[in-house]
Design brief:
With 101 residues, the protein is α+β, with helices and mostly antiparallel strands. The protein is built from 5 helices and 4 strands.
């Protein structure tokens, strides 16, 4: 199993633990209020969504990851989503470790 596959499995665990925010409006709110520790944006998201989330995460100093497609993210968390945010620092560290290898 690759580290990318492990990272996607971890996203399912994060969802079950209740440490995931999904949907563009809710993720933007989480970035603004500081609860989002990492934002995952689908690599095949629309141009306006990409610009919006890149700008917002940069201005609020929140890490942004664009390694996965909509299908991969949606399958990992069990619902169709283009952008998700992880709100737990422990899960973020583990995910970043897996993606760095």
């Amino acid at each position: 199993m690759t580290n990318s596959e492990r990272a996607l499995q971890l996203l399912g665990l994060v969802r079950r633990a209740g440490k995931l925010t999904t949907g563009e409006t809710f993720v933007l709110a989480a970035v603004r209020d500081g609860s989002a520790k990492l934002v995952l944006l689908a690599s095949d998201a629309g141009q306006s969504s990409q610009k919006q989330f890149r700008d917002k995460t940069t201005s609020y100093d929140v890490p942004l990851n664009e390694d996965f497609t909509k299908d991969q993210l949606s399958t990992a968390i069990g619902s169709a989503r283009t952008v998700i945010a992880i709100t737990d620092p422990g899960f973020v560290r583990k995910l970043q470790t897996l993606l760095a290898k």
